[in-house]
Design a protein that fits this description.
128 residues; alpha/beta; Rossmann fold; 5 strands; 41% helix; globular
Length: 128
């Protein structure tokens, strides 16, 4: 079963996203901080029936932020980085377009509605 990783330090957000993805047939992994997420991402499969196909990652996390995760995996495992959807409560328009975050194609501003999430997930999966 294809997998999704939800990385957010807010349990309510993780729970809501988990239910949404499970209703669509995904197995869901969760991490409450960047260090726990890093461990999962280091060993994640990127192909086959149990592939990690989408990662929803909060930008501001305890320990290791979403920006650091994206930068690290862009170098070490670019397929993983290409599947990351960053989410933030920050104003997206204020992000520097010269940074890895500003150039990242998959960025959601919180709060986002589930129809927007579906559009972005479809883009990550190449279905849009």
């Amino acid at each position: 079963m294809k997998q999704v990783l939800i990385i957010d330090d807010e349990p309510g957000i993780r729970m809501a996203l988990k239910r949404w993805f499970e209703r669509r047939g995904y197995a869901v992994l969760e991490a409450g901080d960047g260090l726990a997420a890093s461990v999962i991402l280091e060993s994640a499969s990127t192909d086959g029936p149990d592939a990690l196909v989408v990662i929803i990652c909060d930008l501001h996390l305890p320990g290791l932020g979403g920006d650091a995760l994206l930068e690290r995996f862009a170098t070490e495992r670019p397929v993983i980085a290409s599947r990351i959807i960053l989410s933030t409560g920050d104003a997206i328009d204020d992000l520097d377009p010269e940074t890895v975050i500003g150039r990242h194609p998959f960025l959601l501003q919180k709060p986002f509605d589930l129809s927007t999430l579906k559009l972005v997930v479809d883009r990550v999966l190449g279905e849009a």
